[in-house]
Write a structure and sequence with these properties.
Blueprint lengths: L1 H8 L3 H25 L4 H6 L3 H24 L3 H25 L3 H4 L5 H35 L3
Helix pairs in contact: 2-4, 2-5, 4-5, 4-7, 5-7
Length: 152
């Protein structure tokens, strides 16, 4: 009996691995693009002890990871999840561009170790992750409702 319950617990393990791989790939793509579009070398700054760069990059990664988690939670299949994950990726990159335009000194503040620059960038991505997740959930529920009413 216990052996059967343990085996049953691993019934969705293959799905878990698929969603984990897609999430990991999207996060890696996001990180690769993000570190290339920033006008400074964040990883090198972090290695040198720059906490503003550390806050900026960690907030950006969290800001991407949470919408990805929501995409996993509310998607109906891996393709759906990848589409929503790609949308989140584009929105997060757009936020960075908007931050650079509206706060032009961030490009100098973060390398200079000015904590406020890193904090505001981190905060922007963290705020956005919550804004992104609610419309996505509403759209997903609406889409599921249409599929149910259509007998799909």
């Amino acid at each position: 009996m216990l052996k059967y319950q343990i085996l049953e617990s691993f019934g969705g393990f293959d799905d878990f691995l698929v969603y984990l791989a897609i999430s990991g790939a999207l996060l890696a793509v996001f990180l690769a693009i993000y570190v290339r579009i920033t006008p400074y070398r964040e990883v090198a700054l972090i290695r040198d002890g720059n906490t503003a760069a550390a806050f900026s990059l960690s907030g950006t990664l969290i800001g991407m990871a949470i919408p990805l988690a929501n995409a996993v939670e509310y998607s109906v299949n891996p393709v759906d999840m990848a589409i929503w994950g790609a949308i989140a990726l584009l929105i997060q990159l757009l936020v960075f561009v908007i931050a650079r335009i509206t706060l032009p000194h961030i490009a100098e503040d973060i390398p200079a170790g000015k904590q406020a620059g890193g904090d505001i960038e981190c905060g922007l991505h963290d705020v956005l992750k919550n804004v992104e997740r609610h419309p996505a959930r509403c759209l997903e529920q609406k889409w599921l409702g249409m599929r149910v009413s259509a007998g799909v």
